[in-house]
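[audit] Reproducing an earlier prediction to check determinism. Same input, same settings, fresh worker. If the tokens differ from the archived copy the diff job will pick it up downstream; this log only records the rerun itself.
[audit] input (587 residues):
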Amino acid sequence: MLLREVAAVRGGPRVEAAAREAFGRADLAKVYRQAKDLIITHKLFRLVRYAELEGVRQLTISNLWRIERYADGAIRILEHDLVHDAWVEVEDLAGWPEVPFFPVRETRTLDWWREIARKAIWKALNAAGYAELPQYRRLVTRWVEVKGSPFPVPAPGQQEMSAAHMAYRMIERYIGKQVKVKGKGKTGVYRWKGGLLESKSMQAGARALRAGFFEHILDGEVLSAMRVIDYRNCSFTRYLSYARWREGLLKVAREHRNLLPLLRRINPEQWTRNNLFSRKLWVRGGRRFTALDRRPVRPAWGAGIEGDDYWRVCSFDDGAAWRWLSRASSVVVKEWRGGRAIVTHLALAKVSVRVPVCAYVHVLRAAERRQESIERYAGSYPGQLQQLLRVYLIHCAMLWKEQGHGYVRGWLRSEAGNVSNMLDYLMNEGFDRGQPERNATWPALLRRSEDWHKRIAIEHLEGEKGLQWSSLLGETVIEGIVFTPLNNSRALAEEGYEMGHCVGSYDGHCAKGAYQVYAVREPDGRRSTLGFRVIKGHARWDQHEGGRHGRVSTAALRAGKQLVRAYAEALAEGSEASQAEQAVAEI
């Protein structure tokens, strides 16, 4: 592009035209050129480079990310600081690309090279000063709606290219974009229109990168331990996170392989402790807490190996609970979510017959959804709760012996095997009437539960109480998930009828201000119901159930926890306001 043009006017003097700016903004043009120079100078589209120096294997991705593996199996993770042109060791892998390598179904395409190229371009843009750019140079005073655009745009006469638009133009120039070749509207047939980077060449680089990772970096023992922790999640960056703590990981794999899933909630620096799974750490024995409940064994919020703060491990009051958990299958340990009451009563139930692992998994998942209720009723009816677990697990063992594992898995997904339904009946009526009895069987309990659910549904559909109450939080959207408060008896009855559970029976608690219920709808249409208790100005999560007591997605569970925290904050603010009003009145 010519930066200066000289126009000749017939019969007049020569006039020098104004210089043209790329993108219409000098600051955007400067960042674009600098980012382009960095890409070319450092060869950021060279997907893989391997070297071996003094016994250290180096695998470099796009000349930006480097993995070094030493002779003893230890690894170092480094990033290229483009601003200072230096390699820096890092711990946070948030900006690293993913290289699909396991399971096999994730490796059927090589198009993931585009994501690596995209991250490389963004690294170059940020090093060139993209973060300091204003999105718009001129103040936009008027915005208009444009058909086809989900957001308002500057009005005519005020348009200019934004910094984000420049960045995406650069990305599209190199890797291409999706274009529609057939159809109208949102539906149609799309294909990928390539950019300057040739797909065949980049796919060859991606293939070489994955092969280099398998040959020079991947440690089979680390991968095997990861699969015990969570076989569904074996991503590239997650592998690197665990491989950094290889010594402690493999020590636990050799000595306590079934307890590997617990490492997710323990500070990685403590994995090499000789007493990591000792009774002293995991059983209080009359103490208020143990070292497991404090730092450095317990990581700070968000500082664990996976940064997931959904729950934390904690020590047990009863040694039987720890003995039971320490001997359980790794699949069972993986499903445990920190609830002490359910593990304690599973241990005290003393089921001596062989029970399929899937039955224990089903019980733990049901207990996770009802953790607050389980802990509350475990204190009032410990023997009856243990009898319930004993009856249920023995029935599962009988089905397993007579019908086989496949039949048991199907039965657990049916209404007959739904523990949550049974807990509803027992917590509202059964425990008070002495159920389950000493000689109870699961079919007999099931008949009582079904009878109670039918009676509750009829009562709330035919004879509404007409109760009403209010909620501190109205309809709330969290991460695209909509939470709608149910503030009267009819709304609860309709929710219970549509979702196939007994939430209609909670209207008395709600009217007293002791309970709140929210209908939950996810962006894909899935529904669930959230319930939490309000006790002395505090909100405590109680249950989050899908249709017919089915499982709820992880996203909905996380958003539900956030809503309960927001409600607790609203309660605290209301309490402070009322105290201030009372103080003013006294004055």
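[audit] rerun output stored. Observation attached for the diff report: The radius of gyration is 31 Å.
[audit] end
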